[in-house]
Amino acid sequence: MDDTTGTLDEALERLHATGPERNGWLSNHAPMAVEALVRRGQAPAVHRWLDRYRHKLEDMPSPCSPVTDGDWREALGDPSRIADWTRHFERAVEERPWREVLAEWWPRLLPGIAGGATHPVIRTGHAVRTLLTTGETAPRRAELAHALGYWAARHRPLRAVAPLPSAPSAAAALDAVPAVRSQEGGIRVRLEQLTAFPRWGSAPDPDTAHTRLTELVTAATHRYATHGHGEPVMLVHAATAPNAVLRTLPALPRELWAASLAAAWAASAAVTAAYTPPEPLPYTAGTLAPEEIFERAAAHGDDHTIKFCDTALDVGDPTAMAAALRSIELNEPVF
Fold first, then answer.
1. 205 contacts: CB under 8 Å, gap ≥ 6
2. pTM for the model
């Protein structure tokens, strides 16, 4: 839904003076959460939510030197260049159509989809969804620039893994992902332990890639209902990261869709391996309407819960709604 109140642009302008991280690593989730709140009819709650989140915001770091066409490869994956990358993309989206900028940089950034614990690609997906479905404004273009800048600065390819036997479906593939040896420490420590993924996530043509990516988002969302207890915050990314890619596909050239599916599968599988619990748990199906569930998520206030419920509403079926309610139950409320 379009925001006729101006709330989204106001919120983004507040946030663009801040950096994408705090404490040297933890992501600033506010731009993603406020986009979801506005999208799902909760615009009146946005500024109150931001006021509560303010203590988690830090100023944008100082720039070092401009990123240029000649040295961008050296700057890729350097978090000390976050401000440089953001300025680079701010200039790019003002000088050229944003779709053109996205199409140029998407294949460059895609191998580093797991960088920043997948938050940069998720932020990109929220920004692109807004640009595709609502009026284009300067703050919304700037939000895409901030998202891409964050991704470029935190770009980090996953380690190579061995192929396991093919899985017949996305759900079966996620079930077959082996857990990392030691599920302790942060995500960077865990991702260094990845060893193997089932063969899945390839597609012979763009339409099949879209279909399989939709299947992956559905499977990962459903799986949270039974496995989210393994790590309630981090396991939301197994669904929200591929959904960010799915939201971006319509803005991309079709020849990039198959590679996008493969990267989304790798990200979802990596998060699953890092945090999946040993056993599933049963869940209780709810009777609330999707709009009521998201109202609960907004009242709950946790940023990851808001974003996961937003993805669950995209999926829209009863199991996804149960998974959304499970996230509200498992994650610590903010309000």
1. 258
2. 0.97
- What does the DSSP 8-state code read for residue 228? G
Cβ-based neighbours of 182, under 8 Å, separated by 6 or more: 190, 193
- Angle (nearest 5°) at CA 310 between 138 and 105: 45
Q: Which tens digits make up the pLDDT trace of 169-180?
A: 999 999 999 999
193/189 Cα distance (integer angstroms) = 7
CB atoms < 10 A from the CB of 88, how many? Answer: 22
Strands (E), 24-129: 26-27
Q: How confident is the model at residue 335 (pLDDT cuts 50, 70, 90)?
A: confident
Strand extents, DSSP E, the chain: 21-22, 26-27, 162-166, 196-199
Q: How far apart are CA 7 and CA 74, in angstroms?
A: 38
- Non-local CB neighbours of 267 within 8 Å, separated by 6+ positions: 113, 114, 118, 121, 158, 237, 241, 242
Q: Which residues pair with 27 in a beta bridge?
A: 21
Q: Are 194 and 161 in contact (CB under 8 A)?
A: yes
Strands 21-22 and 26-27: antiparallel
State how far the alpha carbon of 292 is from the alpha carbons of 287, 289, 299, in Å. Answer: 10, 5, 11
- The answer to whether residues 31 and 15 touch, using CB atoms and an 8 Å cutoff, is yes
Asked if 40 and 50 touch (Cβ cutoff 8 Å), the reply is: no
pLDDT in tens, 116-136: 999 999 999 999 999 999 989
Contact at 8 Å (CB) between 170 and 219? yes
Indicate the domain borders of the chain: 7-154, 159-335
